[in-house]
Amino acid sequence: MQFRRSDLPHVLTVVILASVAAVIAGANHIAARLKSGNVDRTVDTRPIAPMTSRDGLQQTIDTMEARLRARPADARSAALLADALMRQVRITGHAGLVLRAEHALLRVLHDEPADYEARRMLATVYLSERRAREAIRGEERARDERPRDDWNYGVMGDGHLELGEYDEAFSSFKRMMDLRPTAAAYARVSYALELQGKLDAAIEAMTLSTDATSPTDLESIAWHHAQLGDLHREAGRFDRAAIEYAWAEHAFPGHPFADLGNARLAEAKGDLVSALAAYEKVSATAPTPDVHARLGELYDRLGRTDDAAREYALAEASWRTDAPQPAALARFLAERGQKVDEAVRLAESAAAERRDIFTEDALAWCYFKAGRLSDAASAMARAQRTGTRDQSIRAHAAAISRALHADAGN
What we know:
Number of helices: 22
Oligomer: single chain
Low-confidence stretches: 1-49
Distance between the termini: 44 Å
């Protein structure tokens, strides 16, 4: 919803690693007793745990909407509806479904402004809408009301991650782990470790998260295996990555994260034809701006310029209107060498609000394309501050470094 040498305080890194070590030590016992429904910001469905197959999700949506028509202030139904709708966003790419989730929760809060479950779930919806600061404020109020609810620390940490506030994020995740080492906590620790380039430890934590996920939560199981596939692919273990993507597909046939994983794996192997077929499959069922952009690049490389132009246009339009993401749009424009001045403005505007490593990378690449090498190097240093092993960031860093050395030699 998506982790590497760090400038974070050494003690924080030690604390996170110690948490993972403690979890690993008790893995079998803990995995046997935990029943968390999902990992990345989806609702804790205790005591009700609807099936999350494709049909199960639609049934949950239909059932909860019917209940809310009869009782609009039913907070439990609104929370389950919001969870199912946000999962549908994940598997369909239809971002507008989040607005339905927000509307249902706001309707509850109109009648019951103090309802705890609706308020904390609304913060999760705000995260999906990239309203991180609002999400953090909402969860801080929920935390003050119920300081031992581990959910609140996870969502607060997610918000701080979105904004690049890594100290605060990792502190929240540690508190979450201390309170209740669930599948959701394991997954967040995995992400923290991946951000620091500790891929083996990240894989261990994500494996624990997978093992602790309810066997009825098929969508989440698929998500987990896809995340494991991504981590193994990033570590260069292509055979293992393929196995994990196959598990994801088996658990939830047609899950776009499995198809995306296979597409990226085929790209990493240099098999452009297979990569193209996998991206086309995702585009047909769960199109996103990023998928359109990747299709455009592959069509370009295969000499299909008209198809490439169409996909590029779809990607740009989506990033401008349907799913506005200034940093992603800026990076897209910079990579294509088009509208570079606008790309710089967009990236600077995004970086004024959020300092996460991916926004800093977009800013660095825009500066690089604009010939502002010193500014590019400064932004890239910030993009690498966690120790990330993200291949795109490392490739950009290498290009900027080569340009700086060439410029110094002239």
